[in-house]
Design goal:
By secondary structure, this protein is of the alpha+beta class. Helix 2 crosses helix 3 and helix 3 packs parallel to helix 6. The protein has one domain: Sufe protein. Chain: A. The two termini are about 20 Å apart. It contains 6 helices and 3 strands. The longest helix has 22 residues. It has a 3-stranded antiparallel beta sheet. About 50% of the residues lie in helices and about 15% in strands. Strand 2 and strand 3 form a beta hairpin.
């Protein structure tokens, strides 16, 4: 499956949920699926801070693919991160660069995204793009 296929699959799953409560439970379930971020990696260069939300991130380049580790102190943001990891982790840098996050506009997530989460989402997407640019030459 391509990044774009996974994005479409996420949109279909999310929009099939009938109401806010079901979508909220889905986001919480996704957030709980993330493994904890190792304490020793919680360094300033691996931290994105947007108002009240903190996101930690790291990447490993394995066999031409980027493997992301991300986590947040916010359960809602963790659900968003889980979606991003499903789309972008274990992909080549070029595939990431060729796959803009179109799913964000297609999801009816406004109730889940405070200004803090919107900024965190934008910051993390930009970081994923920076990692892809950085490792594209190595691929």
């Amino acid at each position: 499956m391509t990044c774009n296929d996974v994005q479409q699959q996420i949109v279909e799953e999310f929009n099939a949920l009938e109401n806010f409560e079901a979508r909220f439970r889905y986001m919480v379930r996704l957030g709980r699926s993330l493994p904890p971020f190792p304490e020793e990696k919680k360094t300033p260069e691996r931290t994105l801070v947007s108002c009240q939300t903190v996101i930690w991130h790291d990447v490993n380049f394995v066999d031409g693919k980027l493997e992301f580790e991300c986590y947040s102190d916010s359960m809602q943001m963790r659900g968003i991160i889980a979606m991003l990891m499903r789309i972008y982790s274990s992909r080549s840098p070029q595939e990431i660069l060729d796959s803009p996050p179109n799913f964000v506009q297609q999801l009816d997530m406004d109730a889940f995204k405070s200004a803090n989460h919107t900024t965190g989402l934008e910051d993390l997407l930009a970081q994923i793009q920076r990692y892809a640019e950085q490792y594209r030459q190595a691929a």
